[in-house]
Amino acid sequence: MGIMMTKNKRSKLKPQMKKLKLIAIIAVTITSLISCGGGISKQPANAEGFGAIEKEIKNKFGDNAYYTDLAITYNKSIGNIIGVTVTNNPESLKMGQWNSTQGSWKQNSEISLEVPKGSKAADFMFQLNEKINLTKLGELVEKSSLQLSNKQKIKNPELYMAFVKFPNNGDITKAEYTVMLKPENGGTTFTFFYKLNGELIKMDN
């Protein structure tokens, strides 16, 4: 059994819908944005840039925050969009869905959690530390980009989305990094799946 997430009037969310809902929130943010800014939105899609994004996330939510979703989406017009589902108190069974667009953080919703009897909510979440971190994710974006350039002969592939895929049952051994890249001028999206140690699981296109 895994964690169950409910939103607003406690309408239940299917676990497989969490990532889709996060992507949908990011899409709404893109279409509604009218302000301008910089900061983490301008960080490059590499180990150093993603490390800077992690630092900003920790500045916002604390070094010991817990997450169930964390995604970085790139949009040419406005740069990086950071989406997280986060809490500082797992046992409260409450989490917030937040986005950062052009350096401005906004909470989109609050989620209530249900966990199996006898379990701790923290067992179904991850933290940003040596096991899971954005520096490693950024490194894998670089690795994926280089592979597309060398093997697929795609010049200047750009980031579409990179995220931590954390299993609903909390089994960290099954957690993955996912990197999605596309050609600079549009076209097929290439998706890379990696183990936490950086080993490539597969590539889809």
Task: Describe this entry's structure for a reader.
There is one protein chain. The chain has helices spanning 18-32, 47-61, 134-151, and strands at residues 4-7, 11-13, 66-75, 79-87, 94-101, 104-114, 158-165, 176-182, 190-195, 200-204. With 205 residues, it is α+β, with helices and mostly antiparallel strands. The protein has one domain. The longest helix has 18 residues, at 134-151. The protein starts with a strand and ends with a strand. Mean pLDDT is 87; it is low at 9-17 and 29-37.
- Largest sheet strand order: 2-1-6-5-4-3-7-8-9-10
Helical coverage, percent range:
10-25%
Rounded average pLDDT: 87
**Topology as a string of helices (H) and strands (E):** EEHHEEEEHEEEE
- What would you call the shape? globular
- The end-to-end span amounts to 31 Å
The portion of residues forming beta strands comes to 25-35%
Task: Please outline the major beta sheet.
Answer: 10 strands, antiparallel
Q: With helices defined by DSSP (H or I, 4 residues minimum), what is the helix count?
A: 3
Calculate Rg over CA atoms.
17 Å
Unreliable spans are 9-17, 29-37
The structure class reads alpha+beta
The structural domain count equals 1
The number of strands is 10
